[in-house]
Amino acid sequence: QCRISRLFLASSRLLGLCNNFAYVVMLSAAHDILEKQETRNETASTSASLHVDFQVGNSSNSSIYDCNPVSTAAVLLADILPTLFIKVFAPFVIHKMPYGVRVLFCAIMAATSFLLVSFSSAVWMSILGVIFASISSGLGELSFLSLTVFFSSVLEGWGSGTGAAGLIGAFLYSGLIQAGLSPRITLLIMLVVPIIMFISYFFLLVCPPSLPQWRTKETEYAALVSEDRQQLLDSSDDEEPESSTTGKCHIRRVIFFPLCKMELLFFHNIFLTHAAQYRWYQTLYQLGVLLSRSSLRWLKIRKVWILSVLQMLNAVFLLLAVRYLFLPTVWLVFTFILYEGLLGGAAYVNTFHFISKETEDRHREFSMAAASVGDSLGITVAGLISLPVHTYFCSL
């Protein structure tokens, strides 16, 4: 059992990295996706009403914010709404799908998303690719969080892996684009990630006998715990006592994702273009997420609501910064973005840590899956709010 747990700890890092990779890359590529499609529209039409120049300082863009016609929040919503739908409804029926089938489906969806966005010839095709990435990420997160119930002390590995996905995905995409590769070639290179997910799960992970790999669960499976699984769970309870009073679904936090409006906060005449600034915002945010999601071994924060309040304050501050443009340098923006990532990552990993410790064993697998709706709900709300906010600022 210890060997299985150690192997899953290593595998969970890879699985967390691969699962969130496509989701993060699509967010990092949001500005490029919209800009590429608009540039094609400009080439195909001579109408001045359709002409938008994205080069900083061009007079054809009357807004001081160098706006895309469509907010990157549109890409964010395409990247999160399918995930939210899956997280809300799947916990009630997902037990009918074996874990092996789920992982295989997630890998196929991720690969399809990269191919669709790479070869897209219209905005709808790019958005469809983003939706496929969202389906892969949402189903994968729900499944792998439930999977942690079968192993002891592996939640930190999952959190660290998902944090690494953010940093590696955003940094790799930004770095390759900065090095001169086109978005299409960059996304095609990233097809290796779904392959790594497949290998990590089916060849590196050693599954316990209680795990329903290729078979469906029985009707009362969620209420039954095998002896091996109970021993693994008991061995992970050394740090905090488990409460037997909690058996309900937990939705303990809602986070806001300020990068929706960060596309409007950019600086003229510096060493980074507008699109490059947005990509590095994503990279620094994901760096903060990685650091805080990997901190569970040294720091546990029970009052997760404090982190949510701090995120709200940060969102308000950045909104004012966009409106009044009082930040003098991009380095201050980088600092606030990193800080936001630290808050978001800490809220995520601490929420699931305490759910895993304080929920009755028979409800734990369901609760871990259902509680993941919290972050998706927050991001969805942020994306919906950002659409009219984007329109308002771009009309100034």
TrEMBL record:
<feature type="transmembrane region" description="Helical">
    <location>
        <begin position="332"/>
        <end position="354"/>
    </location>
</feature>
<feature type="transmembrane region" description="Helical">
    <location>
        <begin position="187"/>
        <end position="207"/>
    </location>
</feature>
<feature type="transmembrane region" description="Helical">
    <location>
        <begin position="366"/>
        <end position="387"/>
    </location>
</feature>
<dbReference type="GO" id="GO:0051453">
    <property type="term" value="P:regulation of intracellular pH"/>
</dbReference>
<dbReference type="InterPro" id="IPR003492">
    <property type="entry name" value="Battenin_disease_Cln3"/>
</dbReference>
<dbReference type="InterPro" id="IPR018460">
    <property type="entry name" value="Battenin_disease_Cln3_subgr"/>
</dbReference>
<feature type="transmembrane region" description="Helical">
    <location>
        <begin position="163"/>
        <end position="181"/>
    </location>
</feature>
<feature type="transmembrane region" description="Helical">
    <location>
        <begin position="304"/>
        <end position="326"/>
    </location>
</feature>
<dbReference type="GO" id="GO:0007040">
    <property type="term" value="P:lysosome organization"/>
</dbReference>
<keyword id="KW-0458">Lysosome</keyword>
<dbReference type="GO" id="GO:0005765">
    <property type="term" value="C:lysosomal membrane"/>
</dbReference>
<protein>
    <recommendedName>
        <fullName>Battenin</fullName>
    </recommendedName>
</protein>
<dbReference type="Pfam" id="PF02487">
    <property type="entry name" value="CLN3"/>
</dbReference>
<feature type="transmembrane region" description="Helical">
    <location>
        <begin position="73"/>
        <end position="94"/>
    </location>
</feature>
<keyword id="KW-0812">Transmembrane</keyword>
<feature type="transmembrane region" description="Helical">
    <location>
        <begin position="101"/>
        <end position="124"/>
    </location>
</feature>
<keyword id="KW-1133">Transmembrane helix</keyword>
<feature type="transmembrane region" description="Helical">
    <location>
        <begin position="130"/>
        <end position="151"/>
    </location>
</feature>
<dbReference type="InterPro" id="IPR036259">
    <property type="entry name" value="MFS_trans_sf"/>
</dbReference>
<dbReference type="GO" id="GO:0012505">
    <property type="term" value="C:endomembrane system"/>
</dbReference>
<keyword id="KW-0472">Membrane</keyword>
<comment type="similarity">
    <text>Belongs to the battenin family.</text>
</comment>
<keyword id="KW-0813">Transport</keyword>
